[in-house]
Write a structure and sequence with these properties.
Elements (H helix, E strand, L loop, with lengths): L7 H10 L5 E3 L6 E3 L1 E4 L8 H11 L5 E3 L8 H16 L8 E6 L1 E2 L1 H12 L8 E4 L2 E3 L3 H15 L4 E7 L3 H8 L4 H25 L2 E7 L15 H11 L5 E7 L6 H4 L9 H7 L3 E5 L3 E4 L2 E4 L11 H22 L7 H10 L3 H7 L6 H23 L7 H43 L9 H10 L6 E4 L4 H11 L9 H12 L3
Parallel strand pairs: 3-4, 3-15, 4-5, 5-9, 9-10, 10-11, 11-12, 12-15
Antiparallel strand pairs: 1-2, 6-8, 7-8, 13-14
């Protein structure tokens, strides 16, 4: 296990070593953090470019890592642990320089299996929220204790610098689905958070965590929203436990299209969540800086590749070519393979992307929606088939040729469909870029759209660190280029109002 934790002196020394990268304080913790942190949402152990990106970030001035027990079913924490072990052993970084934050709450994958096993043994986790198929949620102290132990093991750490309750508002969503009166649900909701806080104070005393907090998507929401989490309420709960409490961190979404963190006056005293957090000295971590929901669509706030829009007949032709390749596979190749029939049926179904594209290519709604389907569904399905078939290709010339040609067909079909959405997305992103430029002169400085999106957030008073998914080394370099540009932190409420008014006209 890696001993120690992030310290005031060591994080200050790290910041001094990597100037002119921009740093600030993580609330009242005294720790110095890079103004952008390494977001671990989509990284996993065993993916080489993820490991390279993390190592690049830690060796170039990024000293805060945010992960969670459920990211990649524990694979994100495992990767962080392996990288930290190697870098601390080599002396490239010191444990005391790096701020590591993880989260607890979700039961998916391994945790869901664990939950079902405990139920079968008659000892289920208490206060369990059965949210959906393969998904449960829990913030009961017993579950927190179990998960913290597992997280520390995967991270190879003796102590976590920050530990957050991960979207506890799942309880409120469950309560609404099950017809619980809102006031009753809210009382129970805050009771559960209070019990978790009391337990987390004990973990601080044990030395397994240094600070704790909440990551909630509903901090910036309207106060009358059913799943709203009131920051002032949870702050007072921590104060009731102890004036020396360690509730020190909050995490919430905030981006160019979703400015609720700064604009929604949802606290009882009339402040926004961000302003209230700043008044209390809370460290504020911003998530989803580049992934925004607006106008019923998901948008990636980053420059798009230059792609020429194809004609409809060209798109259809590429989809048909993919379908032809799939037909060749299941009619001519698959019958010759020594594979059980049930497995052949599964392989055919998993490889059947062409029909999906044929029927739905007009209905993805946005480039980002299609991009998510392409990267998250189509390619993983087909790649699984290709990987499985490689051992069967020896001595089978037709299969060998197909394994080489089919990925090309899939890529060309996806590029063709994607081209229909890129043009519209590019126009919309340009409008967003111009709106940001007009809203604040400091946001108008040159740079990529992703840099501009990060700049707007880190220049807003109250924001401690912006969490960015830097899954590849070029993404790290893009972020570092932005962090080397000096900019003053200000309230900028007027800038956000101007931007929001302009954005409303675009959707």
């Amino acid at each position: 296990m890696i001993k120690g934790y992030a310290t005031i002196d060591a994080t200050a020394d790290y910041a001094g070593r990597f100037a002119p990268v921009s740093y600030g304080f993580l609330g009242n913790t005294g720790l110095k953090t890079s103004r952008a942190g390494f977001g671990g949402y989509r990284i996993s152990n065993g993916v080489r470019h993820h490991e390279q990106a993390l190592r690049t970030a830690l060796n170039a001035g990024i000293n805060l890592i945010d992960t969670s027990a459920n990211y990649a079913d524990g694979g994100s924490e495992t990767l962080v642990g392996e990288a930290l072990k190697d870098l601390t052993v080599s002396g490239e970084v010191q444990r005391q320089e790096i701020i590591v934050i993880s989260k607890v709450g979700y039961l998916q994958g391994q945790n869901f299996t664990l939950s079902q096993q405990r139920k079968s043994e008659g000892r289920p986790f208490q206060d369990l929220v059965a949210y959906g198929e393969g998904l449960e949620h829990c913030i009961h102290p017993e579950f927190i204790e179990d998960q913290l132990t597992r997280s520390l093991t995967r991270l190879k750490l003796e102590t976590l610098d920050g530990y957050l309750l991960h979207n506890p508002e799942y309880y409120l969503g469950w309560a609404h689905k099950n017809g619980l009166p809102l006031e009753r649900a809210r009382r129970e909701y805050y009771r559960r958070i209070g019990a978790a806080f009391e337990y987390l104070e004990k973990e601080v005393a044990k030395g397994r965590i240094r600070f704790y907090g909440i990551s909630s998507n509903t901090f910036p929401g309207a106060a009358d929203d059913r799943e709203f989490t009131c920051l002032e309420t949870v702050w007072k709960m921590a104060e009731d436990i102890s004036h020396d409490h360690h509730f020190s961190l909050v995490q919430m979404p905030f981006n160019l299209l979703e400015p609720g963190a700064v604009m929604e006056a949802n606290q009882p005293g009339g402040e926004s969540a961000l302003l209230f957090a700043a008044q209390k000295g809370l460290g504020v971590l911003i998530n989803r800086p580049l992934n925004a929901f607006a106008g019923g669509r998901l948008m990636r706030l980053a420059d798009l590749p230059q792609t020429k829009r194809m004609e409809t007949n060209e798109v259809i032709a590429k989809i048909r070519q993919l379908q032809k390749s799939e037909t060749q596979f299941w009619r001519k190749i698959l019958p010759d393979l020594d594979i059980p029939q049930a497995l052949k049926i599964r392989l055919k179904q998993q490889n059947d992307v062409g029909d999906n594209l044929k029927h739905y290519w007009k209905n993805f709604g946005s480039y980002e929606n299609f991009r998510q389907a392409r990267k998250g569904t189509f390619w993983p399905r087909v790649q699984g088939v290709l990987d499985f078939l490689v051992p069967y290709a020896q001595g089978h010339e037709e299969l060998t040729r197909w394994l080489s040609s089919h990925p090309v067909c899939l890529e060309e079909a996806c590029e063709a469909v994607g081209s229909l959405y890129v043009e519209e997305a590019a126009r919309l992103l340009n409008r967003i870029r111009y709106a940001a430029n007009d809203a604040d002169p400091e946001w108008a400085k040159p740079g990529t759209l992703s840099q501009k999106a990060i700049r707007a957030l880190r220049s807003t008073a109250g924001v401690s660190v912006v969490l960015v998914g830097m899954r590849r080394p070029p993404y790290v370099e893009d972020v570092l280029m932005e962090l080397k540009q000096p900019i003053e932190g200000k309230q900028r409420h007027g800038s956000w109002i101007t931007l929001s008014q302009a954005i409303e006209k675009s959707f």
